[in-house]
Design goal:
By secondary structure, this protein is mainly β. About 0% of the residues lie in helices and about 50% in strands. It contains no helices and eleven strands. The strands form two sheets. Strands 2, 4, 5, 6, 9, 10 and 11 form a seven-stranded mixed β-sheet that branches. Strands 1-3-8-7 form a four-stranded antiparallel β-sheet, with no helix packed on it. The radius of gyration is 13 Å and the shape is globular. The protein starts with a strand and ends with a strand. The mean pLDDT is about 95.
Amino acid sequence: EVQLVESGGGLVQPGGSLRLSCVASGFTFSNYALSWVRQAPGKGREWVSSISASGTTTSYLNSVKGRFTISRDNAKNTLYLQMNSLKTEDTAVYYCSWTNYRGQGTQVTVSS
């Protein structure tokens, strides 16, 4: 059974930082690219970032480029998203994504 369990969300002021984690199980983690997606209140799901199986290739939504960093630890079956210089428009539920699977999500709220 595939499981993706996100954590690390919370309430942060604009300009602050958070590090999201996603622990995966049920598939060979090191063989696959993974992504982070988010869904803001009242909006559709939005792709944020992806990373290749080896971790050497990454890609980002333009609005987060230079502020967010995706990474992975294949020995720990864990995906990360370091989010710096957070803005109010980053407020959303963030999901770890593999093929058609997503976790339960972790809430990120950026507010003063």
